[in-house]
C-alpha cells in the first residue's frame, strides 16, 4: 500500500509586543483587506477507514451585556443615543456594540465599542476604532505607543495607552482576536487599573 505524504508548514504567532500608531484622527476607514487561508490536504489511501469528522468552533460574537466587568450599562439619559465613533465598515452579518457603562463614584462612564465578523485584520479595525475615540475626546498630541497586557480568557491581544498628559486620565484600551475587535475609553484611571477593568468587561461583552 502506498501512502502519499504531504508536509504542511504551520505558522503561529503568540508574542505580545507594543504597537505604535499614528494618532491622526482623520475620518478615513480601515485600510486592511480580508485575509484568506488556504488549507492543504494530503490524499491518503487507507482502505475501509473513514476520515474522522471534525467540527469547526463557532466564531465568537459581541453583545451589549447588561453588566460588563461589574459595571452596569447605562439606560435612559446616560445611554449612548447616537453613533459617537465611526465603527468602520459594517455588513449585515456584523454586530455593533456602542454603550456607556457606569463607573462607581465617577460621573464619566466607560464608553465601550465592539464589533464582530470583522472583514479585515482585526488589529486594523482596532486601530480605526482607537482613532475614532481619540477624535471623540479631541486628542491632538501626535503618535501614541500602546502597551500590551494579558488578554484574559479569550486570548488574542489587549493593548492600552494613556491619552493624557498626566500619569492618570483618559486611558484607551483595545482587544483584537480572530473574529472580533473592541475598544474602550476609561476615564480618570492609570494604565494598569484600566487594563484590568477592560479585560473584565471584555469577558462579558464577547461571547
Automatic annotation (TrEMBL):
This is Lipoprotein LpqN. Residues 1-23 form the signal peptide. Residues 22-60 are annotated as: Disordered. Keywords: Signal. Residues 49-60 have a biased composition (Low complexity).
Amino acid at each position: 500500500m502506498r501512502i502519499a505524504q504531504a508536509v504542511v508548514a504551520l505558522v503561529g504567532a503568540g508574542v505580545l509586543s507594543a504597537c505604535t500608531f499614528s494618532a491622526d484622527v482623520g475620518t478615513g476607514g480601515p485600510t486592511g483587506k480580508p485575509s484568506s487561508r488556504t488549507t492543504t490536504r494530503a490524499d491518503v489511501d487507507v482502505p475501509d477507514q473513514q476520515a474522522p469528522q471534525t467540527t469547526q468552533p463557532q466564531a465568537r460574537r459581541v453583545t451589549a451585556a447588561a453588566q460588563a466587568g461589574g459595571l452596569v450599562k447605562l439606560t435612559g439619559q446616560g445611554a449612548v443615543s447616537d453613533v459617537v465613533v465611526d465603527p468602520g465598515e459594517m455588513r449585515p452579518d456584523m454586530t455593533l456594540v456602542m454603550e456607556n457603562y457606569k463607573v462607581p463614584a465617577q460621573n464619566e462612564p466607560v464608553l465601550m465599542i465592539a464589533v464582530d465578523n470583522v472583514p479585515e485584520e482585526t488589529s486594523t479595525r482596532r486601530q480605526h476604532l482607537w482613532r475614532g475615540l481619540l477624535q471623540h475626546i479631541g486628542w491632538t498630541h501626535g503618535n501614541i505607543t500602546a502597551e500590551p497586557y494579558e488578554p484574559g480568557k479569550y486570548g488574542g491581544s489587549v493593548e492600552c495607552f494613556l491619552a493624557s498628559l498626566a500619569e492618570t486620565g483618559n486611558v484607551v484600551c483595545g482587544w483584537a482576536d480572530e473574529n472580533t475587535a473592541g475598544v474602550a475609553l476609561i476615564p480618570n484611571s492609570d494604565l494598569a487599573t484600566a487594563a484590568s477593568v477592560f479585560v473584565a468587561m471584555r469577558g462579558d461583552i464577547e461571547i
